[in-house]
């Protein structure tokens, strides 16, 4: 069984509802099991900063699927929820990225694991470290908590849920 960590973010519309719908879609896939979710964090935008704040979270999934197949499910989920890619780092109703897949290091035309900028992004590191504070970067071997200490600015706890079921069944 493979373990993958997925980052989810939204800054258009009902941000919490978008995150919940994305997790529902992922967990309803017959070949994926959402084993844990982080709290929800509100974060300032990165890159293109003239946009609304994001809600971000990380989920841990278990699966026998390859990373490429999980990426396909992430992209399908974005499409189902109406994501339109207008420009890099622009506003989005939903964004799903694979951060880690086991301890693997892989690079293809459409997928780089570990996510190439994750160690620079507090909105990824803070929720990831909430789920697993002992993770190390698969390439450098550096504990992610060392990167995370430098990346906490602009990341604020927004809401915590008592597990996956409580999250997907909560009323806004």
**What is the SS-derived class?**
alpha+beta
Relative helix content = 25-40%
Structure summary, number of beta strands: 8
| Count of DSSP H/I helices | 5
Rg from C-alpha positions?
15 Å
Shape: globular
Query: Can you tell me the residue ranges where pLDDT is under 50 for at least 5 consecutive residues?
Result: none
- In angstroms, what separates the terminal alpha carbons? 33 Å
Order of helix and strand elements from N to C terminus: EHEEEHEEEHHEH
Average pLDDT, rounded to a whole number, is: 88
Main sheet properties: 6 strands, antiparallel
Strand content: 25-35%
Give structural notes.
By secondary structure, this protein is an alpha+beta fold. It has 5 helices and 8 strands; from the N terminus they run E-H-E-E-E-H-E-E-E-H-H-E-H. The chain has helices spanning 15-28, 67-80, 122-131, 144-149, 164-169; strands at residues 2-10, 33-37, 40-43, 54-63, 95-101, 106-107, 112-113, 155-159. The model has no long low-confidence stretch (mean pLDDT 88).
Q: What is this structure's SSE topology?
A:
Blueprint: E1 2-10, H1 15-28, E2 33-37, E3 40-43, E4 54-63, H2 67-80, E5 95-101, E6 106-107, E7 112-113, H3 122-131, H4 144-149, E8 155-159, H5 164-169
Antiparallel strand pairs: 1-4, 1-5, 2-4, 3-4, 3-8, 6-7
């Amino acid at each position: 069984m493979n373990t993958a960590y997925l980052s989810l973010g939204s800054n258009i519309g009902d941000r919490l509802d978008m995150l919940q719908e994305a997790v529902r879609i992922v967990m309803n896939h017959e070949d994926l099991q959402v084993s844990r979710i982080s709290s929800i964090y509100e974060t300032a935008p990165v890159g293109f900063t003239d946009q609304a704040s994001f809600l971000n979270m990380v989920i841990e999934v278990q699966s026998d699927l390859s990373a490429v197949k999980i990426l396909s499910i992430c992209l399908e989920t974005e499409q189902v929820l109406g994501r339109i890619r207008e420009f890099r780092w622009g506003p989005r109703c939903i964004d799903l990225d694979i951060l880690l897949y086991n301890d693997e290091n892989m690079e293809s035309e459409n997928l780089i694991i570990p996510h190439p900028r994750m160690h620079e992004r507090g909105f990824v590191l803070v929720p990831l470290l909430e789920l697993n504070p002992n993770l190390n970067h698969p390439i450098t071997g550096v504990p992610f908590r060392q990167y995370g200490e430098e990346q906490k600015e602009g990341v604020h706890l927004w809401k915590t849920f008592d597990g996956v079921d409580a999250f997907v069944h909560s009323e806004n």
